[in-house]
Amino acid sequence: MNTTRRPRAVLYLRQSVAKEESISLELQEDAGRRYAQQSGYDVVAVEADHGISGRTWKRPAVQRVMAMIEEQQADVIILWKWSRLSRSRLDWAVAIDKVEAAGGQIESATEQVDVSTSTGRFARGMLAEFAAFESERIGDTWKEAHRRRVEQGLPATGKKRFGYDYDRATGFTPDPVEGPVLQECYRKYITGSSFHEITDYLNDGPTRPGAGYSGPKPDRWSPNTVRRVMDNPFATGRFNSKGTVLQGIHEPLISQETWEQYQVRRTSRRITRSSTKEKYPYTGLIFCEICGHGMYAGLFGSDRTIKYRCNGAANWKLHPGGYVMNSTLEATLIPWLAELAEDINKSTTDTPASLKTPDPTPRLRRALIKVQARLEGLTEKLIDGTVPQDVYERMRDQWIAEKASLEKQLMAVRVESRLEPVKLPPDLMNQWDEMPAEVKREILARVVSKIVVKPGRPRAEVRIVARWEDNA
């Protein structure tokens, strides 16, 4: 340490997330300044991490403090207690090694030990060990509390869930304002609205989120926040616990049928460019025949016309170009829809024969039973030692993914069977240009599985794949 000037001290403060240890930052700073004055140090900086656990080293202020020591901008780190720096044994050891290697010191304002002696270093080590023990004890207590809540049909924490009020005595109950709004969000998405449109709907009413929903701007919804809220099954009366969906005791806001419809729509409309506003009705339906990538909409070229571009076109090894003009697309799609509307209107039954396909449920269930049997057999082979661990893990992951895919397909079939018969306006050709994108998406979701485009000159080739053709 440089002896030609007074030692420079930086105060590091951390307010614990545990309520019983939530000593204010002001009290910690006051104790640190008094200690610095008594020790003859000049305080050159004060850094604080508010409400961040000492179990993690990923704290902005503690990183700045360590950098000041390593860059010779300070000589001493002053803590309120040793536990403020870290509750991790490994982080403690690394921090001390770095500070001492840089010629600095770490001192505590309220737990003073002489670290220049072996006894003092032992005392500091015991205090750090006690801090780690306390952290583990608090963690065990929280784990037990969370386990009891889950067994009672409650999520591990009582944090705010959009659509619900929370009270310690009554638990989660539907919020009279937010509850109906969340129900409407699911209805809008199922009937064709995009997450961006739902975001605008939420921001236009009395249901703007509080802290914890949108990060740095909690007064505004964002599409990512809306996705996160709606993808959570909490509105169905269930909750997630360590990756498993469990039945809760709170009242559901939406039915299981509505949830399944949302899941099917979510899967079918999932797009790669999630930040793009879905104001174009064909987004998420168009795929490149050459490389299989999805195509996204935008205003391209000097004339700023609507075109769909292949995501794989950026990789010239796959293929050059990769555009289809919106007008070219609609030149094939709209007549196809008009012909379909004519067939439906001429049919004497609810669903014309051209739209009927064999029920895939028996086939999917047989496949699901086979996959489940394979998983069980694979586990038995692992126990018997006839299958190596690495082979078991690879095959297990493959069959679990196949099982999940089959379950999604079965859910889609259930949803489809509950839908009303397809209805298309008889004068679809004349109405199409005036229809909102939301209405177009809903029509397309019922009859079109995907639109396959083969980019080329002078015009791209467009092929419509109907829902009943894709499932046949």
Any key phrases for this structure?
about 475 residues, alpha/beta, Rossmann fold, Hect, E3 ligase catalytic domain fold, 3 domains, 14 helices, elongated
The total count of strands amounts to 14
- Overall shape: it is elongated
Q: Using the CA coordinates, give the radius of gyration.
A: 31 Å
Q: Helicity range of the residues?
A: 40-55%
> How many domains, in number, for the residues?
3
Structural class: alpha/beta
| Terminal Cα span | 79 Å
Give the spatial strand order of the biggest sheet.
Answer: 2-1-3-4
Low-confidence stretches: 271-277
Mean pLDDT: 79
How many DSSP H or I helices?
A: 14
Strand composition percent: 15-25%
Largest beta-sheet characterization: 4 strands, parallel
Order of helices and strands: EHEHEHEHEEHHHEEHEEEEHHHHHEEH
